[in-house]
Amino acid sequence: MTDQQEQQAEGHRLGVVGAGVMGTNISALALGHGVDVTLVDVDEEILTSARRTIRHKLKHAQLMGALPADRPRGTLTTTTSTADLAGSTTVIEAVVEIDEVKRKVLGEISAAVAPGTLLISNTSCIPVDEMAGWVARGDELVGVHFMNPSYLIKMVEVIRGTATSEATMAAVRALLDTLGREALVINDAPGFVINRLLHPLINRAAMLVQEGVATAETVDGLLEGCLGHSTGPLRTADLIGIDNLVDSLRVLHERTGDPECDPCELMLQKVRDGHHGRKTGRGFYNYHSATERHTR
Ligand SMILES: NC(=O)c1ccc[n+]([C@@H]2O[C@H](COP(=O)([O-])OP(=O)(O)OC[C@H]3O[C@@H](n4cnc5c(N)ncnc54)[C@H](O)[C@@H]3O)[C@@H](O)[C@H]2O)c1
What we know:
Layout lengths: L2 H9 L1 E5 L3 H12 L3 E5 L3 H20 L12 E4 L10 E4 L5 H14 L5 E4 L6 H5 L8 E5 L9 E6 L5 H13 L3 E6 L6 H17 L5 H12 L5 H8 L1 H15 L8 H8 L17 H5 L2
Parallel strand pairs: 1-2, 1-4, 2-3, 4-5, 5-6, 7-8
Antiparallel strand pairs: 6-7
Nicotinamide-adenine-dinucleotide binds next to helix 2, helix 4 and helix 10.
């Protein structure tokens, strides 16, 4: 690592709100690139489990050669208080994909940080322009759709809202550069590019299983073998979390009216049964070990 990269990493103090699938992914990515992280969630039990998950992810990232070898790890602080974000240079919101929850959390973050703090939402589907109305300074808000696992997938989708300023775009580029990510910038829309394409595909794949056309293994096998998908849509669903997918599909359906985005009965049933995918040990597939649940 060059002196300049080390200084860059030292200059960032990252707040992450929401210690679930993506909050732990983003935290591991940042810590592994030498950035200090303050991770916020609603209770200590979630934060204890998140610390364990982040350790697994850092180990996995290192094994996969996905972290700079010569950069000292950042320090992780966990807390239940949004007020502890006060000294952050950037805060990334990664709470559940439910607009009332995001509205409340984004309002709290915005009140806790100083003007000039880069504010990022990792939302899957809620337009940035909607969220800009929920914060004090909409020009400082930008969408960054980190992928899962965040430390293995280099590309991120950056969503520029109508109000997002040039200074905010420069700040987000600097952060992503420190994190070793590549960005493609798009305009705002429900689901952006990735999830406007991916979520209806997953929903349709689940419908095929529901209708008895093929098993999950066969649907994924065909998409992998014939179309070159790396994991298949239903293994991807398990990785994302079926609860999150159902919430995201609802956001898309409400805003686009597209019937392909109305979550199918099989996914709704899996959520009711608590079979949310890797994070609960069962979704379309079963996951037995901690490594299977916490890593790719
Ligand atoms: N799962 C994925 O693969 C993926 C990928 C890209 C983007 N996203 C998006 O990232 C965001 C987070 O998704 P996830 O999969 O990590 O969800 P998750 O359900 O795994 O985690 C959400 C976390 O938010 C916490 N939370 C809820 N209310 C909170 C509050 N008031 N304050 C602090 N924390 C709170 C929950 O306790 C939970 O730990 C969502 O907007 C989702 O759509 C998810």
